[in-house]
Amino acid sequence: xxxSNRPLLHIPRTKREKIWNAVGxxxxxxxxxxxxxxxxxxxxxxxxxxxxxxxxxxxxxxxELLLLPGISTFLLILMTLLxxxxxxxxxxxxxxxxxxxxxxxxxxxxxNMLKNICLIVFSLIVFESVSISLDWGLRIGIxxxxxxxxxxxxxxxxxxxxxxxxx
Length: 167
Description:
167 residues, single chain, mainly alpha
């Protein structure tokens, strides 16, 4: 069924989606406030890139840190729009009008989780970069990449497994 022929349904947000949104926005706003409050203490050069072991392999201007909230803002807007229109998402051939609500909810919950995980990850990168810049000794280090991979791949796998049970 082509996306233009799919039913438009209003499915209320689940409690889980509301909690994810609250946590994601808390991290997002918190990282912006954290960056603003620490801005004048930051040196002119801050970590700008990390290698696979979580070590800094490029230093850049502190202005580059503004890219992280900028990317977060873009992702927040884009993925929120994707959540609002689950009828345009890709679905399997099993999709039909009888199971549309289940597919829409499954897909919307996945986009919601990924959106908020991205907000959390970019917030943690801001914290990590500021922490290193100010020599606080707080480091996520080598665990950061596995954390990102697991936190993104796990919801995708769970969503796909849940989708298999939609009739």
